[in-house]
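Pair request: fold both.
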Amino acid sequence: MKYLRFACILCALALCLSLYACSGAPSESQASSLPSQDFTEVPSTSQTAAKDPLKYRAMWISYLDWDNAFDTSSAAAFEASATAAFDKCVAIGINCVIVQVRPFTDAVYPSEIFPWSSLISGAQGTAPDYDPLKIMIDVAHAKGLAFEAWINPYRVKLNDKNPGELAATNPAVLHPEWVETVDGGMYFNPAIPEVQTLITNGVVELVKNYNFDGIQFDDYFYPTTDASFDEEEYLLYANNKPLDEWRRENVNTLVSGVYKAIKAEKSSVIFGISPQGNNDNNYNSQYSDVSMWLSTKGYVDYIMPQLYWGFNYKTSGGSDRFAFKNIVNEWLTMPRDDSVSLAIGLGAYRVGDSDGGSNDQSEWSTGHNLKDMTDALDEVDGIGGFALFRYEFVFASPTNHELATKEASALAEKYAA
């Protein structure tokens, strides 16, 4: 089977990036200098996969979605629920699922490095008698869906409840000196070389053992700007570099190392990162130099910023920098190497609710705002596609089910064969 790929070797799966036009669409000269975003084929059950002229269209399935999407009680129940969940995605035109397979230094697959996730059995470290990841990949590919494994590299615990008690075999338990606590959560220290090795080895294990299409990291990098977080390592390793510069180097080292390890193991697997939509925060608060990853070969195959604001969004101070088309354009006009693709993350969780702007919020209650955003992306050169955050808010919205159904129907009508 053939999997969805960009024409550019390294820029394969571009997932959704957000919006365009801070000061209007790019000029012809700007647009012509951007990498082309041509897709080839998606997996198909037929012997000859049909060309897909449309953009890459993905669905994020978070650990928060597992209760709605998957029945983990048995192998048969899991396969049936995965089939039903992926059928829903296909019905609205999705051609890739991005499933969180390691949310808390744990795994939804048998691993020699990480304990079993509590998502499967309710308790971290308790193994099922089947392999959920293999089932998901097989089901996805049988339905013509590409499959990306979504990993949270540094997060050990979000709080006391997520993921609950850590298994004795969790690397954070085995090596407490690698872990720091921030606001009730636990995170691996990005400055520690052994942590970088652990994360890289975990990615290689996945790529070696499974036939999926890509790896994605989300936007969790440094969890704090507090200088005490890695004070000891700074004194050991920084060589008097400014703290912020040194921290960005630590993240860059991990990202480039993971990229190289993936390509060495299986060059067809793509590697992407979905950072915050506000790139100032990426650079200054999480110490992730996304602009450099975009413009330099050897870090990622795609960047998919989370552009979760509406068309008319304004801050409390009246700025429209993050209005959908404006922020799309801001990302689109950043220098970008030909090997790197750009896609946009769309905030399906905003439907029927609000993006927090000081403006009129009625666009989130039209029943077609997500479709309108994809239309806007279609009009711009240089965007590889989109992803929807997240499954629950499209198919099982707890508070806005009727509006979510309308949004899904609008997408289904647009992408109907």
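--- second member of the pair ---
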Amino acid sequence: MIKRFGLQPLSFSLESSKEMVLLSIIAQSFFQPFSLDDNLLVILTALTSGTGVGFNRALLFLKEGERLQARMWLGPRSPEEAQAIWSMLSTPGLGYAEIVEHNRELVERMMETLRPKLKLLSYNLDAPEVKIPALAAKNQEIILVEEAREEPLVDDNFRNFVEVDSFLCLPLVAKNEIMGEIVVDNGITHAPITNKDIELASLCALLAGNYVYTTHLYKKVLEMEKMAALGEMAAFISHQLRNPIVTIGGFTSQLLHRPCDQEKCQRNLAIILQETKHLEDIIFKISHFLKITIKELRPIDVRPILQSIIERPDLKLKAENKRLILRQAEELPKILCDPVYFEEAIVNLLDNALDVTPEGGYVYIRAFPQNRKWLRLTIKDSGPGLDEKMREKIFTPFFSTKENGTGLGLLFVKRVMEMCAGKIEVQSKPGHGTLFKLYFKISEEKVKP
């Protein structure tokens, strides 16, 4: 006997344990393209959902410099609003995505009036005396406050904001570094906060701390990659432009300061013009690469495009004493891409393949349906091939095996494939040529031969 189950529960069940619901909410967040704020909203949702931990309200603080600053509030403003929200959230069949979307709208609506009040909830963690709620973050400990009106350690601004006598402070910590804090309460139902509630809430706080830490780490990595790319671009531009500029400068100086006969002057001017065109070509390739934009994918017929590509005069000139062979299936489906960028990407690959292929060698280009979802287009040359280190670098900006290459051609192809929701793979070994495999998504519209 075979039983089948979905990967994720589609809706919440009141019969499920709080632990299972909490795990479901958190796990499903990894399947969503959420921002940091959305992921933190997922945590607040888990804390305040009636089928989750079940607190009434949650207040999020994030660390900004050395200050703890209130950022987001989730919860009803009155018992009547609470009843309406909980009735909606307990609707049979209501899923996780709908609950998060509802909470996002609730937060945005409430923040319009709460934002000025939240700005006042800002605490210096380096101050000699730190009061609750910031004390929990500074000491990196969970603090349960009861009878808050009689507790001198509670900040007056915060006490007036939450207007409850009992609340729980949950520091958000990652790598022994404070990321923020979440404060939860039962200001509507006035239900007591139990040890079980604290255990489940602490798990949410642990996940929230790691969300914030991972996001900060990712931003640092992106900044490092940007700086590395800028450094590579500066080195590339310096290397590529130096020789033409020096040549132009030298021959211009000769024309200005040394008399020359007409033949020599013409030669000098021809060299200057040649180097100027070289500079223009470099600048065009860089700017063209940076401007790749595909606003909308549309079905395109690759057959006539591929046929016109192999008939291009520039490629036919390169293919002299070589064999450029196109093979296509008798019936090809249309693919989703942009026809201009598709052609440029294929020409780029064929241009490289013909450059490395020796006289008498061959370059194959084939197009066949891989399956119902993908069309596979391959380009194979009989060049010297690439070793493992070179294969790892071929899509790196400004890396080129050509003496005068810009190192942007293959990266351009990769970006086009990504923007067309496709894939690109490369296989190569020294002495065995190089094979590029391009996978394009198939459109529903068929093309007849």
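Observation on the second member. The mean pLDDT is 79.
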